[in-house]
Task: structure prediction
Amino acid sequence: MSAPPIYEGQPLSDSDKRLVALFDELEKKQIDFLDEAGKRIVELTTGLLGVLFAVTAFGDKFPPPYLAGNRPAQWMAVVTLALYIAAMLCGVVTLWPRSYRRYHHNLTRLGEELENITRHKSRWFTFASGLFVLGSLCLAMLIGAVIFSA
Result:
């Protein structure tokens, strides 16, 4: 079996150095970005839950006339509520403080721990984002069901 070819290296160009610096900066700010994005999901779901409550409880009696007897709209309201609450909880899990191992003398394990932190936050933010989008689509369908039943 022959050895793979060995290529002679070249010094990094200014463009390459800028690219490496850009990725270093992105990596450094990624955890803060995921925390802020998780907060934003919680804020947005809270606001849209207010819209949902306004749609479902608008008026002086409950359920409002446009929801009474409108089974599709009632089910959409329940599904939307569930999706928004799940999105909010996933956003909170993104932000929830966790204990992490701090390896003072093992940079490899420290790098792995940073990857675990980022992966955890990214996964829960992805869940929160998906649930938020589904909840928003259901809210739009709920409003459409209310409009078409009028």
